[in-house]
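Q: What would this complex look like in 3D?
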Amino acid sequence: GQQLNQSPQSMFIQEGEDVSMNCTSSSIFNTWLWYKQDPGEGPVLLIALYKAGELTSNGRLTAQFGITRKDSFLNISASIPSDVGIYFCAGEMDSNYQLIWGAGTKLIIKP
Amino acid sequence: EPEVTQTPSHQVTQMGQEVILRCVPISNHLYFYWYRQILGQKVEFLVSFYNNEISEKSEIFDDQFSVERPDGSNFTLKIRSTKLEDSAMYFCASSPSGMGEQYFGPGTRLTVT
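A: Here is my prediction, written as structure tokens for the whole assembly.
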């Protein structure tokens, strides 16, 4: 089946640092979505991207839809403690409406 | 802000029993989904539903599973003859247009003993 490769798997950062994570695939996607999931809760939509090359911000978060339509990245600037959690990329292909999910990037803030 | 709601938050059942997980999607949304997430793993698509019928389903969604929209607000997932490996978080999601953004509920934790 289709795969999204998300990296890194986890990140240990200091408060105030910038964070970058990405997802790649061998398949072309129509839509890229970035979600955050806190323990025991459902994924919360952060950013939705619909066009190749699109760069979209949501507060301190910025995400881009890769020009080849096979990748996307998410940046978080000036991280704060409430940024901890697991970030998932999800993509939607031309042929169907289901979301294909990455394995997640766990963000941990060093004390 | 409207949100997807799910009940119950936690369901414990014995192997072989049937369970029904309930969802109330966002009211003006037309596309509905069920996903599951085994502890510590990625989210997996189960089924999408539009216009009172299944539009797409994954290999996981076999004859053990069924979905229904019994009235104008609820969307249910029935799991028959539950197995230990059905233990997971089950998420309902809805979308206004079926293309792109999907909004997730808080999930139902299903524990099969």
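A: To summarize the key features: Chain A is about 0% helix and 55% strand. The radius of gyration of chain A is 13 Å.
Q: Very helpful, thank you.
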